[in-house]
Fold these 2 entries.
Entry 1:
Amino acid sequence: MLLHVRTTLAATLIIASIAFGIPLRPEKSHIYDENRLVPAQQVPFFNTLSEEFAKETGISVDAILLDDIGDRDARQYASDIAEKWMADIGQGGEILIFVAQKQRRKFVVTKGTASGILPDATIKKFEQETLLPDFRRERYGDGLLSFTARVVFAIADETGSTVNIDEQDLPKEEPMSIRGWIFIVAVFGLLIAVGSRGRRFGFFDNMKKLLSVSEIEKSPWPGIFRDTFGDNLVSAFLSGKCLMEGFDALASPWTVNFILKDNSPEEIAKLGAYEKRAARENLQFAHFYSPAEIVQTLDTTPLEYLHIANRNVPLCGIKPLAGFEPHPDKLAAQCRHEIDKALEQLHSDSKVPFAKALNDILPLLYGVYYLETKNYPENHGVVLKRYPAQDIAGLTKTLSGILATLNNPAVKPSVR
């Protein structure tokens, strides 16, 4: 009986769709394209992006490109199609890109949860910036992909969903070489191999990452920091190991530090809304200093401030600690303390890899180099030439020699 009811209902829906002229949603695609306007190489990419986004958010992104809708009201017709297609697949939200060629109508309709996340003004802005310019040039595939990527980003930011894709890497409308087709086949093979629950758009993880200082400087982040903190912001800057040679932006995030007039928890919390986006784009918010804190700790952690003063990239605000010179005795005291800890660690853990041990100790050796020469070293090579070590034993010997020099005030640091 239940089977009979379901069969009857399905038949009724099909008949109703035909009667009222609502096209049936394609079973295996998110694009209904009567005149084949979207190039074949872009359809699979759009379908995969839509499928993954629907799994993550419950919102389906579809496109319908019709030749002629007669004298129908385009807006109402598109709205009816969006409602019907959303119900057909059982999703909570629908974003429908609608095109009627002969009537020269092109716009986007949102339904369900999609309407509550992005306001109409935002959708209209995305249409004007991505969809319509490409459509006017009859580059329908480019328009669909660029608009969908923009919407996906915006909804991901609003909902905290995980999606990483770079609009610059979307396939363009151009003839595909054999190598290009092989690349696309390999890409989708990887997507399938990873599995739907595990991938969460994982293939695109590195496409949205900021991989260079110039990309960060040209990104929206400097403006975000200014808008978030306003007059409370003194400086936002890159510093730390991310500016040292050997840093790999594919493996580690860029470290952003801040100087705020008021670094209370309430002020710092203002940046909390951007933490997930920062992680996706390869940024890590590290330390929030205040001018008062810096003044109070200049003599207790001078090595930290020495590195900040000499190796930083301001993103907005002033250059941090410009002209700072640590007190030699205070810097020597911190270096002695840090070398003591390093030697204790090396003695207690003889199996620590030499490369890791050297990498951990190099910032300390920069401080010793400054003590001896009054110059901040340009790179690791300059430091290692002065303090050579080929293995753990050699590193231990070098550190012990430096410590002996620092512990004997009668022995002035010598330039080796």
Entry 2:
Amino acid sequence: MALALVITMLLILKDWQRLSNDWAYFAYSLRDVPQTQEKGFF
């Protein structure tokens, strides 16, 4: 029973890492867009 709980927690942690990586990439790409626009304006 405890082993199943540990495996479940590891799987959730792995999914969370993948989700946070996707979110970081999404935030980075969002942050990249205004910079290029500012360069175009100025």
